[in-house]
Design a protein that fits this description.
alpha/beta, TIM Barrel, nine-stranded parallel β-sheet, two-stranded antiparallel sheet, 11 strands
C-alpha cells in the first residue's frame, strides 16, 4: 500500500493515527458533530430499515459536515445485521458515489469482485476487512489474512478480533508492528478492546474507532474520550 493512501482529504500514516466515529442505528445525526473524529463510518446494515433509496441524501448531509465517509454494510457472520448479498450490494452501489471509502469483508468474495472495480473507477478507497468474533488467531494466521486482503486489492487491510487477554493483544501488536510500513488497521473487541484502541494506533494502526451513540462493537471508547487520550499521548 502506498504511504500516500487517504480517505477523502484525510491522509493516512502509521505515525498519525486517524479516529473514525462509528455508531449504531440511532446515532447517525451525531456523526455530523462527532468532536475529535477525522472520519465517520456509516453502518448501513444497522439501519432499522436498510433502504438504498435513503443513502444518497443521508451521505450528502454528512458530507456537508466536512468529514470523509466510510460506507460499511457488514455481513451477519462478521457482526452485522442479517442481509443477503443482493441487499448489501444494492446498499453499497447506492452509497458508493457519495462515500469516500467502502469497507467490505474479504470473506464476501462476490461483493469484493463487484465493488472493487467500481471503487477504483470512482476513486474511492477500499478497506478489506476480517472480523474474528470469538478469538484472536496466531500471528501467522493474522498475517495470512492481511496478505489475502492485499492480494484481493485492498488499499487498507483491516483486522478486528476478539481479544480477552494480554496475550491476545500481544498477537495483534506483533502483526501491527510487522505490517505498519505497508499500512494496516488493527483493533480488538472484547475485554482488551479499550486498551487496543490506544496501543495499536501507537504501534502504527492507521485507524482507530470510537463511538457516538450506540457502540458498533464491544470495546469501543467514546470518540471524544479516545481523541483526548491520543492527544495526551502525543499521537494527535
Amino acid at each position: 500500500m502506498p504511504l500516500a493512501v487517504s480517505i477523502g482529504a484525510v491522509s493516512l500514516s502509521p505515525e498519525t493515527p486517524r479516529i473514525v466515529a462509528a455508531t449504531g442505528e440511532d446515532g447517525h445525526a451525531a456523526l455530523a458533530t462527532a468532536d475529535g473524529a477525522d472520519v465517520v463510518e456509516v453502518r448501513a446494515d444497522l439501519f432499522e430499515e436498510p433502504n438504498p433509496d435513503i443513502l444518497p441524501a443521508l451521505l450528502a448531509g454528512l458530507r456537508g459536515a466536512g468529514r470523509p465517509i466510510i460506507l460499511t454494510v457488514r455481513s451477519a457472520t462478521e457482526g452485522g445485521r442479517p442481509l443477503d448479498d443482493a441487499q448489501r450490494l444494492a446498499l453499497y452501489e447506492a452509497g458508493l458515489p457519495h462515500a469516500d471509502a467502502i469497507d467490505v469483508e474479504i470473506a464476501s468474495e462476490s461483493l469484493v469482485d463487484r465493488l472493487l472495480p467500481a471503487a477504483r473507477t470512482a476513486g474511492r478507497t477500499a478497506i478489506l476487512s476480517v472480523h474474528a468474533l470469538d478469538a484472536t488467531p496466531l500471528p501467522d494466521g493474522l498475517r495470512a489474512l492481511v496478505e489475502r486482503a492485499r492480494k484481493l486489492g485492498a488499499d487498507v487491510p483491516k483486522v478486528a478480533v476478539y481479544a480477552a487477554t494480554l496475550e491476545d493483544l500481544r498477537r495483534l501488536l506483533t502483526v501491527t508492528l510487522a505490517e505498519r510500513a505497508a499500512g494496516i488497521v488493527t483493533l480488538a473487541m472484547g475485554p482488551m478492546g479499550p486498551l487496543s484502541r490506544i496501543v495499536l494506533p501507537a504501534a502504527g494502526s492507521l485507524l482507530t474507532y470510537g463511538h457516538v451513540g450506540t457502540p458498533t462493537a464491544p470495546g469501543q471508547l467514546p470518540v471524544a474520550e479516545l481523541a483526548d487520550l491520543l492527544r495526551r499521548l502525543g499521537l494527535r
